[in-house]
Amino acid sequence: MIELKVEQLGPLFPPLPCDRLSELAPLSFADTQPRAASAIARLAQLDRRCNVMLLGGFPGADYEQLLMHLIDDSAADNRHCFDLCYAENLRNPAKPIWLKLKPGSGMEFCELVADLLRRLQLHLDAEEVVQRILRKQDQDQKIADYLTLLAAHVAMEGTFTHPVLINLLIHHASDNVPLIYGRDLSWDSLFGAVNFQTEQGSVFSHHHLLEPGLLREANGGFLILPLEELLADPDLWFKLRNALETGFLDWTPSKEAQGLTPLFQPEASPLQLRLILVGNVLDIAEFATLDPDMAERVFLRTDLVSEVSLQEDFPLFLGMLRGLSERLGIADLDSDAILAVARFACRLCEHQQLLSIEEPPLAGLLQLAACIAKEEQADCLTGEHIQAALNEQEYRLNYVVEQSDQGIVDGQIMLQTRGEVVGQINGLSVIQIMGHPYDFGEPVRLTATVHMGDGDVADIERKAELAGHIHAKAMMIIHGYLSTQFGAENPSPLSANLVFEQSYHEIDGDSAALTGLCALLSALALQPIRQCYAVTGAVDQFGNVQPVGGLNEKIEGFFRVCNIQGLTGEQGVLIPASNELQLILSEEVRQAVAEGQFHIYPVRHVAEAVELLTGCVAGDLDDEQSLFGRIQLRLDELSIPPAGQLGLVGSLLRRLLK
User: In terms of pTM, does the model score above 0.70?
Assistant: First the structure.
């Protein structure tokens, strides 16, 4: 079997187009999101009254900055924008009315109405002012009706609840399309509020005590809301949905404020905006559960991409890295530093041909490296600075790893990396601690024993209720392979026990299937397994090895144990051949592989794995010198009844024939 070379244990990068990162043009994260850009461009073109878009992202994504760039690039116009004001309802002061104005004309409108009121009160000719207002508002009928009613009200010497006639709620001082990102959402901040005054024990309100809220401020533009905040208070979403469907937003107060002034009810104002709901996959799933009808009706959806192709998008990644470093105010990066960051981005994806473009981890690494470079008074980040930052991160987080390794040092965890044992093998697992960002590999010893029985494989973890459903499925697949391989003609007379030694917590997954199967084959053939190897991989019922996750952590975990117990030059791991592209190993492991102190073998079938582990050819069932042949011979011998039983069977047959 051919082991992997050190060049195969990490990504191979194309030639860099520069010696320094500053030589490249900066790009933003938005430049790496063509799918989201396409969705925003389409959203900007839609003419429906209220459109909703669902943007799926990932934790840490800067949705606000991203959407600001994308909306600017979409060239969205302000044709749907309008200024909004409220005026006293001269027929019913308890129900103020809205007036919809051309964008940017609100201040002038208020001044003209004030001039009109002054002229009316002085009994001066006001027709010119009225016509001027209507011309500027494109002869809006509702404004014309209000001005007519105002003239009649003054003529009848009517009174006003407030000396200033118009409350300009929304005014667009520029041609820019409104873009609002909602945070700390509440009923009043989202939908607006009716404030109240108290005088001599009486509670009252008027049109100047109205606050618009985010929805009215975003009229004609874009409103971005995090799904997690709407999910925290579902009442917000259902009122928002009603406003979107009707195209009007009323002033109904929150449950806590209801009943203060029930007779004061401002007119529901028009709503015309584009709503963008953002959240990760879990938020979107919960939203679909909360309101499945609306989730199905949102036809404009897209997802952010968190990784790009190394071969096709390497220049794009470098441009984004340049833009990120510029935004963070970080010193320049030389070629070694660029490649070190790119390697880190591949490790985040666990793939040699993919680069992570998630900004938070990349920004964190760059800032740490910049601090180290500043301490050294270096004018440029180097590969050593990036590696030092990674080492610092690992040092601050690997206390749990040191605690795990202490069991190996003290000899309390029984793991062998030398010698040979029948039915015993080293497996590879990954430890994930909730709330801790550091996953690490931890080897585990599996043992298998066989005894006379009905051919069943007893999984001790499952019987002890320490195994999940996927692990249980993997054990059944092992049983299926053994039954097909060795019990096709006669049921197996041997049963087996398989156990994860010194495992006291729940396990799940199918990555130990190959490990357990090799241990069982060793026990069935009475052939010892070399303890210098560790194994990971899933299998199917035909013995084909399938890929697993957490490969880098698993390999580094076994290497740590070998390092503690002493490298012999024979130790190594067996991994699924289909996992080769996931290998992005630490420099320490790569160095050991380069020096021949550690080995990594890709396998495609259980036969390849068991041959390397036992040093015995798997062979055919008919070859009694092969491993499989010896297993079949043993099972056949145990299946033959003793001589006395044969005589009894023969006599019974003879009696039946007579």
Answer: yes
